[in-house]
Amino acid sequence: MSVHDYTVTTAAGATENLAAYRGTYLLITNVASKCGLTSQYEGLEALHRANRDRGLQVLGFPCNQFGGQEPGTDAEIQDFCSLTYDVTFPVYGKIDVNGDAAHPLYRYLRAQAPGNFGPEHGFLFEHVRKSRPEAIGTDEIKWNFTKFLVDPDGTVLRRFEPTVTPEDIAAEFAALR
User: Fold this and answer.
1) Regarding the domain delimited by 3-167, which CATH topology (the fold level of the hierarchy) does it fall under?
2) Is the pTM of this model over 0.70?
3) Hey, which residues are catalytic here?
4) Structure letter (DSSP) for residue 66
């Protein structure tokens, strides 16, 4: 089993098989347009543009499970990404990343890289500890902009918690190349 075994739904409602990305590094992230971390779209887009010719593809998955911070329709989300951040990487249809309705891709990602979310994540740890204490110590996605780095064979290499910036990931990706 690998990330390449999953299908996802585009914002337009079409089905896409992630096997199309075989041979490419992926950075998969759950995104939201009304989050305190939404400005990470800018860094994700810069990372994508700087590294797409070096084999890195960013994939965004909108999710409204954290404070209702992605309330829009798929079309509204696409407009926001395009007009606000000039996003050129794929932003798919809205999904759940936790709970019974979690997308199978995210169940797989969470199982492969359960994360290490603790006090070193500062303000976000305190926020999650107060608002979602049941998530601490589990493989659940803690908040928007959790990122997973996947190798060209579809193996999950690492989970980055939301406070890890795209700029930090750029250095790690450069070391892989």
Assistant:
1) Glutaredoxin (3.40.30)
2) yes
3) 35
4) T
